Amino acid sequence: MNENSENFENREREELIERIINEKGPDAFDDMLKLLDDEDENVKEIATEVLYRLGDSVRPKIEEYVKKEVLRGEKNNMKLLYLIDLLGDMGAKNSVKDILKALELYDFEEAQIVIYEALAKLGAGEQFYPLLRYMLLEGEERFALGPQIAIAMSYLDIPEIIHDLVQAIDSSDFSGEDLETIKQALSNVINTRPSYKEILITLVGEENFEKYVL
């Protein structure tokens, strides 16, 4: 796809999202929920973005839906996973207990990492730091999931994460886009918590700082 085509698709996508929000507002909730069952990832992303932008006007409905689905106990429910990810972005701290329970419903690591990230965004992920650190630096899953793990870790307010991400960058385990994503995770930590910048400088030297961040 060339750049012009991509820009056109992005404009169309944005116009569609705005139209749904302007015409239906919070009443779009049920329709967006149904679209999260669609097989097309683009459709799911549009539905998720609409719900995110509707914000507090639909958040209680999402929280209630997540609570009910967790109680229902369906394994590997992808719609529920999308909504958990969304609640993390929306800062829905009231849902932390339900999201913690949801961990038991997924038996593949990609989904579990999405949940760890949501919990980290909600200030409730510190208990999973040792596991995430192991997965990033030692576990076999680092080769396939390292970037996703690094992004999840970047939301934790734990100074040692700076050392962990530097270690990951300095290892020979990551290259190309994966390495860039880990550098982005480290950049996220520094941008969110400027006081951590000094930790990074202490570790790598001021002259090397730019090599580790984007």
Features:
mainly alpha; globular; 214 residues; 69% helix; single chain; 0% strand; 12 helices
Nutshell version of this structure?
With 214 residues, the protein is an all-alpha fold. It contains 12 helices and no strands.
Q: Quick one: how many beta strands?
A: 0
Q: Over the alpha carbons, how many angstroms does the gyration radius reach?
A: 19 Å
**Mass-distribution shape:** globular
The helix tally amounts to: 12
The profile of the biggest β sheet is: none
DSSP strand content:
under 5%
On the 0 to 100 scale, the average pLDDT is 96
Q: Report how far apart the termini are.
A: 25 Å
Helix content: 55-70%
- In terms of per-residue confidence, which ranges show pLDDT below 50 for 5 or more consecutive residues? none
Structural class by sheet pairing and helices? mainly alpha
Helix-strand string: HHHHHHHHHHHH
Characterization of this structure:
By secondary structure, this protein is an all-alpha fold. The radius of gyration is 19 Å and the shape is globular. Helix 2 runs antiparallel to helix 3 (41-54), helix 4 (59-72) packs across helix 5 (78-90) and helix 9 (142-153) runs parallel beside helix 11 (176-192). The chain is built from 12 helices and no strands.
